[in-house]
Amino acid sequence: MIYWATALSVLLLVLSVPIFLVFGVGSSLVATIELRQPFTTLLQVSYGAITKHVLLSIPLFIFAGLVMLRAGVAGRLVHLCITMVGHLPGGLGIAMVLAMGFFAAFCGSILAAITAVGSILMPSMVDKGYDKSFVVLLAATAGILEVLIPPSNGAIIFSALTEVPVSKTFAAGVMPGFVFMGLLILYVLFACRKMPRAERHSWSDRGRAALAAFPGLMTPVIILGGIYGGILTPSESAAAAAVYAILVGFFIHRELTFRGLLDALRSTARTTTVIFAIIAMATFMSVVLTFTRAPQSIVEYFIVYGVTPLTFLITVGVICLILGTFLEAIPVIYLTVPVFIGVIDHFQIDILHFYIVFGAFVALGLLTPPVCVGVYTAAAVIKEAPERAFRAVPAFLAVGLVYAGIMIAFPDIATWLPGLL
Amino acid sequence: MAVIRLLTRWLRRLNDLLAAAATAIGMAVIAFAALALFIQAVERHVTGQGYAWMSDFPPYLIPWCVFPLMGVLLREEQHITVEVAPNFLTGKALATLKLFIGLVCLTSGIYFCHTGALAVEFFMLLGEITETEIEIPFWYLYAAFPVGFGVFSLFALERVLEHGLELIDGPEPMEPQP
């Protein structure tokens, strides 16, 4: 029965049936027919997963980001970054990396970040002679920073699955986020070394740009200050960020309209549904995994074959890259983390180190075609055919693999900051 | 055939209303969650005490945002899928695949609606209530599942009928823009 259900799930997946249904149909068939579990158990487990308080921060961070997008925060951030680094070789590219990093610090959506920052910077980069495929891939790759820099949806979901406090997973992503930003900036400097440079902005220009961007720059302070100051829970800090974004949009920048606010609410409700429908149905699978003892079998397999922690982490990377080629990040997390978690305990790998290595490869999987929604979104911003943009994938994938290698080799990058808390 | 066309038109209108209602409920849930958590946090720090229900309720409302909206996203093709087969198909073959996907969605929608309703009936009989400041029966929360999949089935049926008609008549002509 399990093999039939797996075959059915793969078939439905290939035929483009929505992933949440594929998870739900296959797992519920096995759970109710083979394992003779009542559907009430599945429903209880599913509800237990989607009503976790910490998961509520996902829609609220997405909402905060979408309001910020409509409140004109992105434009001011981009302008600040351009005044700071626009004179360097590949200055606009570096500005994009920095702006994406800032935007990631208060937005819960990769696509919102790519649209917000990309729609301002990408057309002017193309006008200045940057290669279109380079621009598309840079935006899509820099969008990955959202996975690393808190508040990150991936961190929240990982915490919900593993019971690791969100404050720890958030903190674990900070240093790797900076490392990834640094690597991307180095690559931009190298790739654009022969491009003409823009004029350096004066310090008064920079001061004015910083002042204009100041309300937006305060958002991460509210979010992370609230959490690490022990003042707010992650969901409360997300709610505070959303209310702050509304206040900034209406009363400081005065660019947010009531229609824009409703639009942000509508988009948030839809994105929430896409994410939570997968979570609700993927938890059916956790019932199957528990009753079939699949994670324990995998641990035994690793023991029998004498797999080392390093080999295990590399195996995780390869699996995530392959899965990420065909699936989005959230299904990959729900498919693999419940299985890997037992193995991590066996190898005594720090769970935050695992999270960062795992996150690196899942994020890299988002760059590999055919399923690379970030690349498609960025390509749509400058109306470039995604197939042409794919030319630049190998170079950015190489940067990502260097980053993933560093994360495997130096666990302290992930564990140092959470250790201080 | 005329009956099917009429049925499709009526179903589309019904689904338009359901889509508007589900979207409004989803938006209200998100807005309530943001405001309730913010007010609760401010109140806790200002007065030293907060209403626990303002923190407890928002997560319980999330299923009422998620499940009813699943059908709307099916209509707009916004659910995450693996776009493998559609990349290799065109014309009637693609329409047949979409009809098949619609049928899978319809069948599983009816299955989950039915089994969900039975589970909700069971929870009603159990009479369990939440451990929140304001107590509510658990089945109120679980009811979002069969209701959501009921709505989802209606949207799936709309897809099945539309793609079925498309296979018989060819693609629907574009409506002239005003």
Please give a handful of descriptors for the protein shown.
heterodimer; A: 421 residues; B: 178 residues; 79% helix
Summarize the structure.
The complex is a heterodimer of chains A (421) and B (178). Chain A has 421 residues and is mainly α.
Q: Which helices and strands appear, and what pairs or packs with what?
A:
The complex is a heterodimer of chains A (421) and B (178).
Chain A lengths: L1 H13 L4 H16 L4 H12 L6 H14 L2 H13 L5 H14 L5 H18 L4 H12 L1 H4 L4 H10 L3 H26 L11 H26 L5 H19 L5 H35 L1 H11 L4 H18 L2 H19 L3 H15 L7 H9 L4 H4 L3 H17 L2 H9 L1
Helix pairs in contact in A: 1-2, 2-14, 3-14, 4-13, 4-14, 5-6, 5-12, 6-7, 6-8, 6-11, 7-8, 7-19, 8-19, 10-11, 10-17, 11-18, 11-21, 11-22, 12-13, 14-17, 15-17, 16-17, 16-18, 17-18, 18-21
Chain B lengths: L1 H46 L4 H24 L9 H4 L2 H36 L11 H5 L1 H26 L9
Helix pairs in contact in B: 1-2, 1-6, 2-6, 4-6
